[in-house]
Amino acid sequence: MTENATGPGTRAVWAGEQRATGGDATQTPVVHSVSYGYADVEQWMSVARGEESGHIYGRNTNPTVSVFEEKIRVLEDGEAATSTSTGMAAISNTLHALLAPGKRVVSVKDTYGGTNRIFSQYLPQYGVDVSLCETTDHDQIESEVGRGCDILYLETPTNPTLKVLDLGRLTEAGQAAGAVVVVDNTVATPINQNPLALGVDLVVHSATKYLGGHADALGGAVVGRDDLVERVYAYREINGATLDPMAAYLLLRGMKTLHIRIERQNANAQAVAEHLLSKPEVTAVHYPGLPDHPGHEIASSQMRGFGGMLSFGLRGEFDAVRKFIPAMKHAHAAANLGAVETIVAAPATSSHVECTAEERAALGIPEGLIRYSAGIEDIADLIADLDQALDAL
Ligand SMILES: *Cc1c(COP(=O)(O)O)cnc(C)c1O
Description:
12 strands
């Protein structure tokens, strides 16, 4: 794609914004209109048939939402992009549009909690066979794919334990079996990782997290092969999980600073991870930017930065979590991630609240784990805040 002649920062700022958006406004307007009137029936019909560009009805397309789709398309360097009301809508609409009874999905145990629920509960209800592998067992994933696979669904790094999957290797295996390979790139963001460049067919995003970056708008996106995006769009249009134009505007506004936020969050997460290694109250630090992280080598080869999220274990298990979280002064205790503010959460109360302690343990999520989403604050303040909260234990 020609867009990649420019750097990611230029793309974050300009992609999608250069098209005519009405009048002389330099900023993308929020078009709230639900419908678009045509005086000429012939033109109306040709827009409806897709022969001419234009908009008909807001559930299908909208001018503000189209700019959002173009910006994420260019950032991921995909052939096409469509949008959804939330990240979960991007994931569920992709799966429902591309699957049918008798089809088979191969994925891993450590996908996002909502995604895992689709795999374990809802797809089986529709006669879709789902095989969930041990997350970093590449041999097992390849052998399950070899038994027949229509969708190979991956996420890397994972949330909250930051496991890393080799996208090049697994994509090759998936495509050799005739599968569509889908990757959730929410945690990495297109600044740190472009799965499509590694051969992946579709990327899904929760735009709610790093893309928007300010925790004030929900949204999702699907980017990649034109024919596949078209099928997801056709399903989403009928299913009705449309991105709201005001949310699209807020997400666009956030995405213009994506590259500088991610640079800062990468640096803050790396510094926090290194600092925590020396703390006696901390049992383990999970961050792909640490040289002894099991996925460090793969992450170094497929990512440009190691991301803004890490997790760590506290000695003292859930009692320590209970004291630690309220002691943090410059961090929200909240369920989201990827915002400008630092956010701390216990998987036992957020991403994996539905599981029992035993189920969490089986997923490698101890009760003393803290998920830490680094914000863009000053690193000295973040470290001082962690030190005083750990001292309080
Ligand atoms: C939050 C999240 C989702 C779901 O996104 P929503 O916008 O909350 O629906 C999916 N995948 C990952 C990795 C997430 O962090």
